[in-house]
Amino acid sequence: MSTREADVIVVGAGLAGLVAAAEIADRGKTVLLLDQEGEQNLGGQAYWSFGGLFFVDSPEQRRVGIRDSRELALADWMNTAGFDREEDHWPRRWAEAYVDFAAGEKRAWLHTQGMRWLPAVGWAERGGAGAGMPGNSVPRFHVTWGTGPGVLAPFERRVRAHHASGRIQFRFRHRVTGLNIRNGAVHGVHGDVLEPTAVSRGESSSRTVVANFEVNAQIVVITSGGIGGNHDLVRRFWPTQRLGPAPAFMLSGVPKHVDGALQQVVAAAGARLIHPDRMWHYTEGIRNWNPIWPNHGIRILPGPSSLWLDPTGKRLPFPHIPGASSLDTLQFITTQEHPYTWFVLNRAIITREFALSGSEQNPDLTGKSISLTLKRIGKTVQPPVQAFMDKGADFVVRPNLAELVSGMNALIGNQRVDYATVEREIRHRDLQVANVAGKDPQIAIIRGAREFISERLARVAALRPILAPANGPLIAVKLNILTRKSLGGLETDLEGRVLGQDGRPLAGLFAAGEVAGFGGGGVHGYRSLEGTFLGGCIFSGRTVGRAAAAGC
Questions:
Q1: How many CB atoms lie within 10 A of CB 42?
Q2: How do residues 411-444 score in pLDDT, each as one tens digit?
Q3: Which residues is 509 bridged to in the sheet?
Q4: pLDDT, tens only, 217-259
């Protein structure tokens, strides 16, 4: 009989893994924390995030006049998720539990650990197609002071304290390639020891194997993340019937090591993998002028004012406007087989409305600088955005429309963008901004958003003509599809126990975070309300950590 190395093995040192390990160790159990990357990658993808969290009826919401409730949030979640399969039983249960958490103890629990949030609440996935359709009815996106590193900090602190006491052991550069199973129960893992690496966080590391390993414990928790860095796997699961063919070119919103390999290993060992065709990819990806990982893309977090054009310059049909419904706009773009799309805007809009996803793209928030953060409400383009305007391969900045269209065509290498079409679309829009009434639904959404003080002061530009010289220069941004999150995953019950093909728990095996679709195998259904990925890692990691500790 193999010797146990610890009470619990946690495979994956991202946010979900850190939360699970901390919760297990808090309850007096020993943990072996494994990861295929080096210690410099502790925290995984969460480190690179903007730090957005989904809260319901928070003090931040109430201070700016946002009226929210558990009932409204749950209705929004269910309308957005679109659960429609027999396999949605556990995802639906996880969704209800997560909304209860977001409307209940989530904020207070995180606050006691030192986490803080900006006073302005963002309105991600704002919808626009109707009350019973996808989207957030009110702003719920709370940006953490410190962005992704600020989200990680309390859990890394707890884990390192347990490591110092000996309750948690680290095993970095340990790539798990299989489960140890005896008499139908999982009792450990085995795999490859990779050579040490000194590459910086997020960079591709060596895959040279220097040894093999096998470790055992009473319980194994899988927190190995998603598939967004593995485009072969993304294409394998791409839902062609629903989204059309996968784009020929896609950017990567996550490092290369986010490869989904262990998820496939666990599924091959008998776990039930559900909804792998449900994915969350962004339509507003731009090539990083200063890349960290291969094919590195950055997502624009857009306000609602840019005009969204197809490759010929024709405006996308409503409700496909910036920040409305990512999946529905993705579906429109990919079923139309558009290889890219365009934002057209001006300096006044980009100054107020463009934010870039990623901790490294927000040094003011990540560095917790109040003085730099306050400059976001000024009249100067934020330095990271200005850097993309100056150096980004997907940006065209010109003084007038004729030169802008010429620059757009030069960027692509053809004459596909039609000047007359672009001019007509912009002028039609500009004619609608002179009066408080009008028939343009995008402009109505902008006006509605500006009723919230946080949107008006820090997020949504005043309605003015795009072509007005005082608001220039004009800007066009070529938008690419950007891979990011897996919404499906290993099916789990409400304790996070991984279920087998027969629907019964696989003894000794739990999963949390993105590898489990952030809970149940797909808590988001088809679409996310945003701010729910980090929160999903926290909630599922906490749930699984407590259940695993109780099961030892």
A1: 21
A2: 999 999 999 999 999 999 999 998 888 899 999 9
A3: 220
A4: 999 999 999 999 999 999 999 999 999 999 999 999 999 999 9
Backbone angles phi and psi of 478, in degrees to 5: -80, 125
In Å, how far are 169, 179, 223, 258, 499 from 503, measured between CA atoms? 33, 19, 20, 27, 5
Q: Is the peptide bond before 276 cis (omega within 30 degrees of 0)?
A: no
Closest CA to 239 of 193, 276, 274: 276
Alpha-carbon gap, residue 327 to 320, rounded angstroms: 10
pTM of the predicted model over 0.85: yes
CA neighbor of 220 nearest in space, from 2, 528, 533: 2
Per-residue pLDDT at 2: 58
Structure letter (DSSP) for residue 357: S
DSSP state of 500: B
The pLDDT tens digits for 190-200 are: 999 999 999 99
**Which has the closest alpha carbon to 303: 151, 509, 398, 443?**
443
Please, what is the average pLDDT of the chain? Answer: 96
Beta bridge partners of 480: 285
Span 24-47, mean pLDDT? 98
Cβ–Cβ < 8 Å for 143, 365? yes
Question: What digits encode the pLDDT tens for the residues 89-100?
Answer: 999 999 999 999
Residues 6+ apart with CB under 8 A from 150: 51, 115, 116, 144, 366, 368
The per-type count for the chain, helices as H runs and strands as E runs, is: 19, 21
